[in-house]
Amino acid sequence: MDLITTAELRNLLSGRPGWHVSMFMPTHRAGRETGQDPIRFKNLLRKAEEGLLAKGLRSIEVRAILKPAQRLLEDPIFWHYQSDGLAVFLTPQEFYAYRLPLSFEEQVMIIDRFYLKPLLPLFVDDGHYYILALSQKQVRLLEGTRHTVDEVELKHTPQSLAEALQYDHFEKQLQFHTGTSGGAGKRPAMFHGHDVGDEEKERILQWFQRIDDELSKLLAGRQSPLVLAGVEYLLPFYRQANSYAHLIPEGIPGNPDELKHEALHARAWPLVHPVFVRTREETAARYRELAGTGRTTTDVAEAVLAARHGRVEALFVTTGVQVWGRFDPATNTVHVHQSPEIGDEDLLDLAAIHSILNGGRVYAVGSDQMPDHAPLAAVFRY
Fold first, then answer.
1. Who's near 207: CB < 8 A, 6+ residues apart?
2. For residue 146, how many C-alpha atoms fall within 13 Å in the half-sphere facing its CB?
3. Which residue, 5, 154, 36, 150, is CA-closest to 83?
4. What is the pLDDT along the chain (382 residues), one digit of tens a residue?
5. Torsion-angle region of residue 332: left (phi > 0), alpha (psi -120 to 50) or beta?
6. Which of 12, 30, 133, 340 could cross-link with 229 by S-S, CB 3.0 to 4.6 Å?
7. Domains with residue ranges and CATH for the chain
8. 196-201, long-range: CB within 8 Å, 24+ apart, which pairs?
9. Do the Cβ atoms of 130 and 227 come closer than 8 Å?
10. DSSP codes joined into one string, 224-278
11. In Å, what is the CA distance from 378 to each residue of 51, 219, 278, 299?
């Protein structure tokens, strides 16, 4: 599975000349349906081709834009390792493909920037979280939603303590027995052979600091909860090394090497779900408290401007709804249209993305959960 960092989101949002093609489709992890995914993608490419030709591009220009995506059809390994959804972005100069834990609806958008609203569940504060599974033998970072979980590749992190520190005999010296505390007949994690000395503690801490360094880059700008999983003696060391602000106090005790992704997901969700409910309810209460003071709005144009200037503290947007219009940076004005016009974009998408990039919290909810039953509701920082 691929991870879209906040930096990559900002790059996708940056303006480029020419038409931007955004394609989304559901994919399958296993089973007979996996053979249908390349066929479905080929049909999306055909729709993109027709759309670009309708925009007035020549056939040779269209083929050049779509060529990198066409190559995916020739890559069986790519289709063998899928998640729940595929997002592809193309311009005449660029190509990005992400396998993500979101089951997208099939969609092709061709406008003057990438269409990013389907990616919002990866960045909003309502159901998206991470699990960091730690043991002396391996490190796993999992990205989860309510119903899915996937492993995120840690490209620059040593996968074991020996690899990190080239200290092969450490693991032999540091024998441990694991169990879970509190249950009948169970013992908590403990060392035997010798106590953990200061030197060993320092080595563990150094390893965890290296892991934290990579996570701080991968998760920069994110506000999703992070759950630790590991034998109980390791977790305090990682908490000492941690610099990610949204690490939750509760963890998953025990040896995570014995648990598959799905088992970790099942144990993590009861820990993070109350966090999501509490923060969303607190934010909605704050909106109601500040209503009428000039610190809130349901006006789409006002919210877009505030988001671009970093004023949005929290934003609610309605899922499955678009509000079309255009932002003019030259005049710093927003034009809202009743129906889409040439050059328009979804202003709810625009407000949400800029709120995220400027550190605001975003909640994508159903219309029945929206404050004031508006397409959008914002709380301002000032």
1. 158, 161, 164, 165
2. 11
3. 150
4. 687 877 888 899 886 788 999 999 999 987 777 789 999 999 999 999 999 999 999 999 999 999 999 999 999 989 988 988 999 999 999 999 999 988 899 999 998 889 888 888 787 766 789 999 998 888 999 998 887 888 888 887 777 766 665 544 444 444 444 444 444 443 333 444 335 567 878 888 888 999 999 999 999 888 899 999 999 888 999 999 999 999 999 999 999 999 999 999 999 999 999 999 899 999 999 999 999 999 999 999 999 999 999 999 999 999 888 899 999 988 999 999 999 888 788 899 899 999 988 989 999 888 888 988 899 999 999 9
5. left
6. 133
7. 6-121 (3.30.960), 129-273 (3.30.420), 291-380 (3.30.1330.30)
8. 196/233, 200/170, 200/173, 200/174, 201/237
9. yes
10. --EEEEE-TTTHHHHHHH---TTEEEEEEES-GGGS-HHHHHHHHHHHHHHHHHH
11. 34, 24, 18, 9
**For helices 347-357 and 300-308, what crossing angle results, to 10°?**
30
- Cβ of 190: how many Cβ atoms within 10 Å? 12
CA distance 284 to 75: 46
Q: What is the DSSP letter of 166?
A: T
**Tokens, residue 226:** 């992070």
Beta pairing partners, 190: 177
Q: How far apart are CA 314 and CA 280, in angstroms?
A: 10
**By the 8 A CB rule, do 186 and 178 touch?**
no
Longest Cα–Cα distance of the chain, Å, equals 75
DSSP letter string over 115-159? --GGGGGGTSSSS-EEEEEE-SS-EEEEEE-SS-EEEEP-TTS-S
Helix (H, G, I), strand (E, B) or coil at 17: coil
Residues 358, 312: contact at Cβ < 8 Å? Answer: yes
Q: Which residues contact 126 (CB under 8 A, 6 or more apart)?
A: 276, 280, 363, 364, 365
Residue type at position 340:
P
* DSSP reduced 3-state for 25: strand
Reading the block at residue 181, the tokens are 């505390």
Q: Residue 139 forms beta bridges with which residues? A: 134
pTM here? 0.69
The position carrying tokens 């990610």 is 244
